[in-house]
Amino acid sequence: MTAARRKIFRVSLVGLWLLAAACAEAGPRLYVSNEFVDTVTVIDLQTEQPVATIDVGKRPRGIKASPDGRHVYVALGEDDAIGVIEVATNKVLENIPAGEDPEVFDISPDGRFLYVSNEEVNTASLIDIAERKVVKSVRVGVEPEGVAVSPDGKWVYVSSETSHTISVIDAASFKVVATVLVGDRPRAIAFSPDGTRAYVTAEVGGNVSILDAKAHKVLETISVLRGEEKEKPMGVAVTPDGSKLYVSTGRGNTVAVIDAKTHNVLRYIPVGKRAWGIAITPDGKRAFTANGVSANVSVIDTETDKVVSTLPAGKGAWGVAIVW
C-alpha cells in the first residue's frame, strides 16, 4: 500500500469513527413519517422532545431504521422512491427508485435489501441497497400494503387489501410460493421473535390472523371488536420476548393488547386519534403509536399498559421507526 493510500485509509477510518460517535452521542430517537405534510419528525427519546423536522419527498408513509442504526428509510409514495435519511445529520442523502407508489417496506436482517409493496400496480419490489435500484419485481395480490421479513430472512410476507391475502415470497428466489386468505382488508404484519408465527391485522374484518410461519397457514383469528365495533386493526408490534401483541386500531383510537399465548385481548389502551403505525423499543419497555388525526405520538409503558406521555408530530402522522 502506498503512502497516499495509507493516508486515505486512515482518513476513512477516522470518518467512520466520527460518524459512529455522532450516532451514539445522539442517543435513542424516534422517527415519525407525516403523510400530509411531507416531513419526518425526529424525537429524542431521552428528553422526549422534537429535535428536527426533515423535509422529505411526497407522501411519506412506511418508515424503518437500518439494522446498524445509521440510516432511516422512508417510502415516498408520490415520488416512487425510498428516501434515505442519515441519522448522524438528520438529512436526506438520496432517493432510491422503488417502483410505482411504494407504501410499506421491510429490510433484510443483514441490511442489504429492501422489500417494497407497490400499491397501485399490485407488485412487490426487491431493492439492492448497494446498487441503489430495483433488481426484481413480482406480482402479488390486489392493492398490496404491509410487508414483513421473517427473523431468519427466508420469507417475505406481503398483505393485499382488496384480495384479502398474504403473498408468501421466498426471499432467495423472490418468487411467490404460497397465497394465504386472511381477514378482510389486511394491513400490517409482524413476526414473532422466534419466527414461528406471523400476525396480520385486518381493518374491515376487525381481527388479527395468527399464521404458522413455517407452514404458511392460518391457525386462529382473534377478534378485537367491542360492542360499538369502532376498532379497525392497523399496525401490529410484538414485544421482544414474544409475550404480547400491541395492535393499533385506527379510528378506534386505542391500542389492543393481546396475550400471545392465550390469544385473549387483555385490555384496550386509549391513545390519540387515528392510531396507525406502532413500534416497541428493543428493551420492550415502551411502545409508540403514530396518531394521524391528532398529529402526535402516544408513549405507552408496556409494564402498566398506560399512556405515560404524548409527543408532538406532524399532520397525518403515519409510521414510527426507532433508532436505538
Architecture blueprint of SSEs:
Elements (H helix, E strand, L loop, with lengths): L2 H24 L2 E6 L4 E6 L4 E7 L4 E6 L5 E6 L4 E6 L4 E7 L4 E6 L5 E6 L4 E6 L4 E7 L4 E6 L5 E6 L4 E6 L4 E7 L4 E6 L5 E6 L4 E6 L4 E7 L12 E3 L5 E5 L5 E6 L5 E6 L4 E6 L5 E6 L4 E6 L4 E7 L4 E7 L1
Antiparallel strand pairs: 1-2, 1-28, 2-3, 4-5, 5-6, 6-7, 8-9, 9-10, 10-11, 12-13, 13-14, 14-15, 16-17, 17-18, 18-19, 20-21, 21-22, 22-23, 24-25, 25-26, 26-27
Radius of gyration using CA atoms only:
19 Å
Largest sheet, spatial ordering of strands: 3-2-1-28
Overall geometry comes to globular
Q: Could you give a short account of the major beta sheet?
A: 4 strands, antiparallel
Low-confidence runs: 11-24
Structure class: mainly beta
Straight-line distance between termini:
37 Å
- The whole-number mean of residue pLDDT values reads 94
Report the portion of residues in β strands.
Answer: over 45%
The count of DSSP E runs of length 2 or more, i.e. the number of strands, is: 28
Number of helices: 1
Helix content: under 10%
Output the helix-strand order. Answer: HEEEEEEEEEEEEEEEEEEEEEEEEEEEE
What does the model show?
The chain is mainly beta and 324 residues long. Helix content is 7%, strand content 53%. The chain has one helix at 3-26; strands at 29-34, 39-44, 49-55, 60-65, 71-76, 81-86, 91-97, 102-107, 113-118, 123-128, 133-139, 144-149, 155-160, 165-170, 175-181, 186-191, 197-202, 207-212, 217-223, 236-238, 244-248, 254-259, 265-270, 275-280, 286-291, 296-301, 306-312, 317-323. The strands form seven sheets. Strands 3-2-1-28 form a four-stranded antiparallel beta sheet, with no helix packed on it. The chain is globular. The protein starts with a helix and ends with a strand.
